[in-house]
Amino acid sequence: MAVKDRIQLPEQSPVLRRQNFDEVTIGYTLELAQEEGKRCLQCKVPTCISGCPVGIDIPRFIKELVNGNLERSFRILKSYNYLPSICGRVCPQENQCEGSCVLNKLGKPVNIGGLERFVADWAAANNVEETNEAEKNNKTSASFAKNKLDKIAIIGTGPSGLTAASELGKFGFTVHMYEALHEPGGVLVYGIPEFRLPKDVVKREISDLAKLNVEIHKNSPIGYAITVDEILENYDAIFIGVGAGTPKFMGVPGSELNGVYSANEFLTRINLMRAYKFPEYDTPIRIGNRVVVVGGGNTAMDAARSALRLGAQVTIVYRRTEVEMPARRAEIHHAKEEGIEFQFLTNPVRYIGDERGNLIGVECIRMELGEPDESGRRRPVPVKGSNFVIQADTLVEAIGTEANRFLLSQFPDLKTNKYGYIVTNEYGQTSIPKVFAGGDIVTGSATVILAMGAGKKAAEGIMKYLENA
Fold it and tell me: What is the pTM of this model?
């Protein structure tokens, strides 16, 4: 049987989109979505479900979409996934549900992410109200109803915290979320640019929490607005979902120069503080004409593409080859389409400044790949005598993040591993019985959907803990 080609999502042209922060991917029309949905084989043993960290019944929501039952399709999605519009946009489906699709063997997996996004966006545009199907689809016993007077605190409003809050709220628990920043959403609002994930989409999905007896306390960092002792005393269970937002630094000579940023600061000022809308938002960021971004992940792509939209000429420097880049293939493709230059097998060794302390160049060295390291990727080895200089007045280091050690220091009895991440059991329970954790603060930097899966599992663990308390 001949398999139809995958229907690609419509996009802004590269020439147009490099001049704005509007969403690059436009999304399906109903006709295109249904046509793509017809490619689903409705497998008797759907491997795509096993590839989804939150276990969405993918064939069922697609079948309802194809049959024109869009409201039903949305409710199926929402019963498994609290953030379908977000996941449809930013999840690495190629490594998860689509990677597990049987049609992927032919290189033509169903565009599950695009269909999820379409259904969720359609529901929002048509004001479809969510119905609580949690107790139908969740294996957790409804006997937890007797504990609905219990109060639960969630520290952090990123993907894991939002998912835990929605799961607990669906069962009627009183949930209080604590967010250090002035907007909830965690990495969804400070880390991912508008052109990949519009902020109104995030706000829309978070707003549904108000219907679930969930209260969000903004500008409330733990240890300042409220102490850990108060949290432990006033709540029956606590979930920590603060992510891993502390930037790592290369320690290259010249890191103190003006114009050198961590990707965390760079993207937060652009995404959360709206630096690209100056003077409408009074939070400008200094961007020169030549920007170098160091790194090969999605964060590096986000920083580079943001700098491009601010008018800079951008070069991405990465110490391995394109094959080893951890960024999504689509993000690399978009960056290349938009005119960003890539320097592979290249690593900075010194940042060069002028007499006023401003960055003017980046001294780099060529690399070659040696034996595999602990990650399984071949280790980059410097090539002696291959140094050269890239002219630059702005540099962004996007080499990863680590745990928030200040917050963890507020919980002295909380067990962490050698990397500073919280140790938990399979349900997210920590060394403090009433404290649970999930997402990047446990696993290290990972994906939105994996953090959501951890939040969902922790919510189940919290309910079991409260039942037996």
Answer: 0.92
pLDDT digits (tens, 9 = 90+) for 434-444: 999 999 999 99
Nearest to 351 by CA among 342, 341, 359: 359
Where does 225-356 show beta strands of DSSP type E? 237-240, 246-247, 260-262, 290-294, 313-317, 341-343, 346-353
Tokens 């398999």 belong to 3
Angle formed at CA 411 by CA 202 and CA 215, multiple of 5 degrees: 35
Choosing among 3.30.365.10, 3.50.50.60, 3.40.50.300, 1.10.1740.10, the CATH entry for 249-401 is 3.50.50.60
Q: How many other β-carbons are positioned within 10 Å of the β-carbon of residue 14? A: 14
Q: Where are the domains of the chain?
A: 14-126, 144-245+403-468, 249-401
CATH code for the part of the protein at 144-245+403-468:
3.50.50.60
Read off the pLDDT of residues 340-378 as tens digits, 9 standing for 90 and up.
999 999 999 999 999 999 999 999 999 999 999 887 888
Distance separating alpha carbons of residues 120 and 232, to the nearest angstrom: 37
Least confident interval from 283-287, 357-361, 390-394: 283-287
